[in-house]
Amino acid sequence: MAPESARLKERLDGLLxxxxxxxxxxxxxxxxxxxxxxxxxxxxxAGDGPQACVAMNQTAGRGRRGRTWHARPGASLALSLAxxxxxxxxxxxxxxxxxxxxxxxxxxxxxxxxxxxxxxDLMLDGAKLGGILVEQRMPGPDRPGWLVAGIGLxxxxxxxxxxxxxxxxxxxxxxxxxxxWLELAARVIEQQCxxxxxxxxxxxxPLDAExxxxxxxxxxxxxxxxxxxxARAVGIDPASGCLVAxxxxxxxxxxxxxEVSVRGCEHG
Length: 268
Known about the structure:
By secondary structure, the protein is α+β, with helices and mostly antiparallel strands. It has helices at about 5-15, 35-40, 95-110, 180-200, 210-215; strands at about 25-30, 50-55, 60, 70, 75-85, 115, 120-125, 125-135, 145-155, 220-225, 230-235, 245, 250-255, 260-265. The protein contains five helices and 14 strands.
């Protein structure tokens, strides 16, 4: 565990002071293959409280459909939060709510214009700023289940990543440069702590106005990459978290994130 753990915990406690949110225990690791994997494996001995893990260097982070997300020291932020879930059903729209929370945290640091490209990409000026991966371990007879939300953000030097798609970073857009690393982590974790109980209780319904504001694909022509079909996205269904689309033949479909990939024709 890196010495920054205590500094991050102090900042987070200050941000959450005076509220009723339960602050997670915090670990800052010098290096780890995947913050999500780390927390899922630690869950067996983690007790029954929320956990947060931040990696200064992530070597094999996972994205949707098995894609890799690397975090180099200082240049990227890789963090995961694990919440015990002892009973009940996690709303399927929960990952969308995580995205809303990340954007709200970035806005609190002075960054405007970040949009959520369904289901889990954080976009800015047509380029990818970050991504989200939510995983769940089901409860057993004598142990709680765990819900883990992984969040990756490019902090600086995104142009050196050598990716085939357009990417960007915070340093290119935040006035005065990228937020200090621990402050960025604290703000992102804080907002997830505030939203988590709301999302479990009500899903993303209370965030409808926010979704309308930040939904990148809403009103856009899209292509379903799995079958080449064309449609127009009309929004994200608050109950299911599905992307609602009207196809060229007039059919209305709810697209599930685990079943299809989409491309916004105007945004790539």
